[in-house]
Fold:
Amino acid sequence: MSFLIHEVVYFGRCLPFMIMDKIPYFRQYKIQEQKMPTLAEQWACARLVLLSHFTVELPQIWLFHPMAQYFGLSTSVPFPHWYTMAWQIALFFVLEDAWHYWFHRALHTPRLYKMIHKLHHQYSAPFGLAAEYASPLETMILAFGTVGIPIVFCAFTKNLHVITMYTWIVGRLFQAIDAHSGYEFPWSLHHFLPFWAGADHHDVHHEKFLGNYASSFRWWDAVMNTEAGSASGAAKRAKAAAVKEE
Structure:
């Protein structure tokens, strides 16, 4: 069930962006509009992602439940109160973001980049399916922030329900796919939460191959001086310059 939820959410969330790629109206929201993914690129990406899901992530998901239950994960009624779920998921977002920032930044050191992380940067203009397009080793390293941190939390607090875990995983998948979508909308979350990253933040990372290492928030990049600027802002400036030249 856990693996099925992962697959349905992952590919289901990617589908709207794949449809938008084929509708000219949405080109105005594409950050790197000159780089639209081809069907061949998407299919090649989907094949590797599926291979990774079945060979790397499925065994991890299979082992998660007995391990988490050993550390005290609850799988029975009553379900947790909504505010308990809310603060725990918020905490997981903050902790995962810190884990992701430092290990992602480490993967950009020359040796680790060449050995591990280069595959994820195959697409300089990311799209939703590419969110989990990565080497098995990178998948395991960065996935610890998503799965391992809640297990450690559960081991110490004995206060985590499987429903909270499912909700957190779905939220994390949405965040990762949206960050790789390549689309910047007027209703994108960072317009309402300035510290949120999103595609506006992460697209620059794929285009420039450096900076903007965090996953969900902007504060680590701001504090550590690795902020690479606004993708949507750069696109708007380029369009304005082109109009001016005309």
Q: What stands out?
A: Residues 39-70 form the longest helix (32 residues). The chain has a mean pLDDT of 91. The CA atoms of residues 197 and 216 lie 5 Å apart.
